[in-house]
Amino acid sequence: MLYAILSDVHGNLHAFETVLEDLKHRSPDRIICLGDLVGYGAFPDQVVNLGREHCDVILAGNHDHAAVGLTDISAFNPYAYKAAIWTRKQLSDENLQFLRERPYTHSEQKLLFTHASPNHPEQWFYIFSDQDADAAMSSSKAGTVFIGHTHVPRDHRTSHGRLINVGSVGQPRDGDPKAGYTLFDDETGERKLVRIGYPVEEAMKAIRDAGLPGFLADRLAVGR
To answer: Over the range 154-180, which residues count as b (16 or more CB within 10 Å of their CB) and which as e?
Structure first.
């Protein structure tokens, strides 16, 4: 079975539409979204609508929870805080409820999907290093786990199994501004990181036009 696994769209409609168009030509069996459909970007409601239309599974992310009031945002940096408040006002009642109801994890075919970590997924731990990955996988019964959250794609081979960060559709932070997502063949174990260009300048302009912090626009150009 071919999985398309994406994460961290962050309200970036231009990137999301480009990825979904690319997926039409790849014909995955399943499309799994690991959360953070919203936050930072200028089109949260439209992105949630597209996600509901095209994804087979959508999980909760910390910025989704921030937008719907399910997590404390007092520790957010000023840019993320302002974006969370703004995003909350843009979402329809139906999409607010939809995001509130998203689960933290999803399992199938001996695979586990979650936004941040298989270890206490509700606490949004960050996994940056191989050591972080090994510790997170020590409590997981799944042989392969897929995460997002850091916006940096990685394929960790730990002593407890494989942990794959699928990258970010809408706000990459690995120095490459192109949208990213992962294709995974559960029969062969082959993982392919897909990077695809999208109209970054248009996404940046939309953020500024919405009155969101300019920093959120500027970082899209450099993938940071």
So the answer is: bebebebbbbbbbbbbbbbbbeebbbb
